[in-house]
Amino acid sequence: MTFSLLAACSSSGEKSGGKSDGKISGEITVWVHPYTGDADAEKKMWDQIVETYKEKFDVDVKIETIPWANRDQKILTALAANNGPDVFYAIPDQMPQYANEGMLMELDPYLKDNDMDDFVDTSLVATKWQGKTYGLPILQEAYTYFYNVDVIKDIGENPEKLPTTWDDFSKWAEKAKDKGYYALSYPGGGSMNGTLYPFIWQAGGEVITQDDEVKINNDAGVKAFEYINTMYEKGWIPKDSVTAMEHDALWNGGKLLAVQGSGISLTNLKKSDMDFVIAPPLKDEKQMTYGTTGMFVVPSNSDNKEAAAEFVKVVTNAENQRTFNTVTQYIPARESAKDIFDDQEHLKQLSEYTQYALPGTIHPIGRNIMPAIQAEVQTMMSGKKTPKEAADAAAEAIKTELSKQ
């Protein structure tokens, strides 16, 4: 059904649009999601953001909040029926799928007067497909390691001198094991963005390029597979890491040296008595980590393309990024807007790490290939394949998925 909807939308819409000299007027509908548990605060936030837009343009803006559940289906169905929004919020694995099928309007013709240099470089990765810009980012996250200070001290290390490289972490991991701790939570049943991919990026590799070059089994990719296998064989990560979704009980019980966390982790830690410190993302060949990007995009069949494009520019300017992220507590995608966290120690620290945060595999098949890659990592950890064999099998699975396109 997805393919038929994509085809219908692609055939009915344009792939890009240019900026006209006419007066911008009319109306637009914007689809957003609930970003917090406080609907009243979000309504006030959107009222404020819309007001800044209406100060410049005589356009009526209708904000509609749609649930996260089944968002893909709702968006695809609405666009195929030509009654969708003029602007909607998208995440990194949606954008390339939609852009590749001609469902999104290219924004580059509208961005000549937009301050693009203020955006964090990594925040723009998720907005581009094959050299064209299809969205502007409003938020980022950065995942990195949170360490239990009591465990650090028990293994004889200094919480002010945290590991920065794989070699550093390996030394700490071995000490943690000797003291009866696990070094790290590895939720092998979860997303590749939180398990394998950061190690691939840190090793200097990538999964697949936008030109369909499969790289997961090159030297860097195999090195990442090997490091995960080493962690499992040495007992640095829990025995159930092959399929586990989380290790909250181990972390809360003081049995883990570190977990991967982001801004949302701070909320949970505030409820506990744990003394923790946050480390910079690890580095092997490169210092990298995972962090999603949230963006606004314009459908190619919008009835008011210019007004929609201008709204995307306004909602993602520095002023409105401050407004949006003060309420939602995400990290602004603009450097100048990060000052909202100047008085919040941990969020300020995390905001410094978005420069290293990649949003995943930006490719139309990015979401589809994850289960096959995950299965190969799990097979390796179970001892049935070597890291090289698992990486090669993952590469073949990706090529098979590519052949379906």
Report on this structure.
With 405 residues, the chain is of the alpha/beta class. The protein is built from 15 helices and 14 strands. The strands form four sheets. The protein has a six-stranded mixed sheet. The protein has a four-stranded mixed sheet with strand order 8-9-7-10. Strand 1, helix 2 and strand 2 (58-65) form a beta-alpha-beta unit. Helix 2 packs across helix 11 and helix 8 (219-233) packs across helix 15 (387-403). It is globular, with a radius of gyration of 22 Å.
What topology does this entry show?
Layout: H1 2-12, E1 25-32, H2 39-54, E2 58-65, H3 71-80, E3 87-90, H4 95-100, E4 128-129, E5 132-133, E6 135-140, E7 144-148, H5 149-154, H6 166-178, E8 182-184, H7 196-202, H8 219-233, H9 248-252, E9 256-261, H10 263-270, E10 276-278, E11 289-290, E12 293-297, H11 305-315, H12 318-328, E13 331-332, H13 345-351, E14 357-358, H14 370-381, H15 387-403
Parallel strand pairs: 1-2, 1-3, 8-9, 11-14
Antiparallel strand pairs: 3-12, 4-5, 6-12, 6-13, 7-9, 7-10
Helix pairs in contact: 1-3, 2-11, 2-12, 7-8, 8-15, 14-15
- Helical content class: 25-40%
Total number of helical segments?
Answer: 15
Instruction: Estimate the mean pLDDT confidence.
Output: 94
Give the CA-based shape. globular
Overall structural class, as computed from helix and strand content, comes to alpha/beta
Q: Count all strands and give the number.
A: 14
As a percent range, the share of strand residues is 5-15%
Largest sheet: 6 strands, mixed
The unreliable regions are 1-21
As a whole number of angstroms, the C-alpha radius of gyration is 22 Å
| H/E series | HEHEHEHEEEEHHEHHHEHEEEHHEHEHH
Span of the ends, CA to CA: 15 Å
Q: How are the strands ordered across the major sheet?
A: 2-1-3-12-6-13
